[in-house]
Amino acid sequence: MKYFNAILIMILVALTSCSSPTADITILHWNDFHSHNTSWVPTHYNQDKHTVGGYALLDAYLDSLERVFPGAIRVHAGDDFQGSPVCAVTKGASQIEILNAVKPDFFTIGNHEFDYTWKHLDSLRQNIAKFGMYSANLIDDKTGESATPQFRVFFRKGYRFAMIALTTPYLNELTLPSNLEGVEVADPAETARNLISSLESRGIDLFIVVSHMGIGLDRKLAEDVPDIDLIIGGHSHTYMREAEQVNGVWIVQANDHGRYIGITKFHVENGDITTIDMDYEETIAGKLRPSKDVAAVVKKYEEQVAEEMDKVIGTLEIPWRSGGDESNLGNWIADAFREATGTDIAMMNNGGIRKGLDSGPILVRDIWEISPFGNTLVTFEWTGEELMNAMDFMASRGRSMQVSGMDMMLEDKVGLVDILVGEEQVDPEKVYTICVNNYTASQAEKYFGTEINNLKETGLVDRDVLVNAVKKDPVIRSEIEGRVIIL
After folding, report:
1. What is the domain-level CATH number for residue 389?
2. Is it the case that residue 415 has pLDDT exceeding 80?
3. What distance in Å separates the CA atoms of residue 462 and residue 441, rounded to the nearest whole number?
């Protein structure tokens, strides 16, 4: 009888362990790669000036990590498009072909994937991509159905878990409205709740959201949908020192541009994540041999543009730096726009300036990487009063523009204090001509609190204007001049 009882206990233990297995699962993730297909030297937190990244090297690191963590899942949280001449010239086709060689297991569509229009992206997705491109809250505006696959179910070590893709709900503010013709974006929280409710009935144990919404919206999503177990994030380019927990939901993100691969390992018991650890692997050149197959695809595309892009067109005496209320690079760009269009004022949005540049030779490639979007310049007229109202709105919301032709004193998040145009006090009744890019004009309500009704297209492409500006004045020494003073 004792022998029988012992056998019965062993069977019960075995059944229990089968129904509630424990598992250690690893996800290797990256985000906001922005077509940094070749290795590069980071300008921040890089005292020894080491080289990192590029897709062939990143793929080699992924292969190496998969040997350490068998069964690891490759996850891309979006924004592979936009940032290099190759991507711009091929309208993203280069990135799809490279990713075909890298073979991500899951890819969430980011906002910059729409920069060459949804119609073009959908064509690439259906006709060229050999990997899954997902977005649960992207809706076909004619059928009302999902425009892409919404999720993928994985099976690892006794557990079935669903990865759900969510794209930022602010797409209409992050790309030109014309790029979104054919699709709408649904509320991410409602989308996630509905999907989780549906998938729970199919025996899914864990729910992982791969989000391209940014850390702020990821935290909000965690508050709104506590049934999510883990959010792998993108969009805000956040370097997270460790996994963060909000409302019981874990959140991770892996910086940007392929400098780091996020290594998120979690332990599952009884269908719940009990412990989680997020680490980074920096993709430092020289430690691993780049993947040959990926390198071949990268080389093929780089060779198509190298002759034109690697031409030296000028010399930079002081490093160009971007961002903030005023930057020397922003001043130079705004000056070039104003000169090209002959307006009284020119303004440039900070988000359109994608990198700085160290002193030394200036290549055509550098200008394309600084200004990769290929936006056109538009002009319009405002009275002095309209100009003051717009700048007051912008300052009251903590926003700023790089400017040329005017000097402003602002009180951050309060409003406009003073403004000069051409070194003279602004005249409320005078009419001023202004130049911005077409993206800024399309988002005028966001930036300025008003629509712009008298737009004139110049036909000038921003990066062409900047290349010509370097050629015209090839020795450049841009400085901060106090054009924007924040109290």
Report:
1. 3.90.780.10
2. yes
3. 14
Q: Among candidates 109, 107, 104, which has minimal Cα distance to 120?
A: 109
* pLDDT score of 103 more than 50: yes
Residue 28 domain-assigned?
Answer: yes
Q: So what's the pLDDT on residue 43? A: 82
Specify the number of domains making up the chain.
2
Q: Is 295 in the same domain as 335?
A: no
Of 413, 390, 414, 401, nearest to 484 by C-alpha is 401
DSSP string, 327-341: -HHHHHHHHHHHHHH
Residue whose token pair is 């992050």: 174
- Comparing 56-70, 89-103, 140-154, 393-407, the range with the smallest average pLDDT is 393-407
Residue type, 435: C
* Cα atoms in the Cβ-side hemisphere of radius 13 Å centred on 261: 27
CA distance 460 to 337: 9
Residue 4 lies in a domain: no
Residues 215 and 277 in one domain: yes
Which structural domain, as residue segments, surrounds residue 350? Answer: 310-486
pLDDT digits (tens, 9 = 90+) for 276-308: 999 999 999 999 999 999 999 999 999 999 999
| 231-234-239-242 Cα dihedral, nearest 10 degrees | 10
In a domain, 12, yes or no: no
| Entry field: residues in the chain | 487
CB distance 476 to 332 below 8 Å: yes
Looking at the domain assignment, is residue 325 inside a domain?
A: yes
pLDDT top residue among 429 and 13: 429
